[in-house]
Amino acid sequence: METYKTKLIAEQMLGLTPEQIDELIDTGEDYDTPLQAAFGIDLATLNKIIQALVPLTPKIFHPKNHHLVHAFVRYQGEHSYIIASQDAPADNDT
Predict the structure, then answer these.
(1) Sign of CA dihedral 8, 60, 67, 44
(2) What domain of life does the native source organism fall in (predicted)?
(3) Hey, how many other C-beta atoms are within 10 angstroms of the C-beta on 6?
(4) Model confidence over 76-92: pLDDT tens digits?
(5) d(Cα 62, Cα 84) in Å, to the nearest integer?
(6) Phi, psi of 32 (to 5 degrees)
(7) Phi-psi region of 76 (alpha: psi -120 to 50; beta: other; left: phi over 0)
(8) How far is CA 72 from CA 22, 23, 29, 50, in A?
(9) In the chain, which end has fewer C-beta atoms inside a 10 angstrom radius, N or C?
(10) For the chain, what are the domain ranges?
């Protein structure tokens, strides 16, 4: 999974506010420090965990390109949005 998608998931896991995300980016701090403090892992390890989990997420149709994807989804009230997704294999058995 691309690094920016891993960072988006990390932001959600850490419960960062938009202001905290901006500060993290503006100060040049990497995501390893808050991930290490909260979960004892770095961004590379989180990426490996996400790679293992993404096939276990539900398959949905991506609203922009209508491809079938596995996705980490965030629900807010009556709306939902995709945090990160990966194309689902064409194989119907997964």
Answers:
(1) positive
(2) Bacteria
(3) 21
(4) 888 888 888 888 887 65
(5) 11
(6) -60, -40
(7) beta
(8) 22, 24, 25, 10
(9) C
(10) 3-87
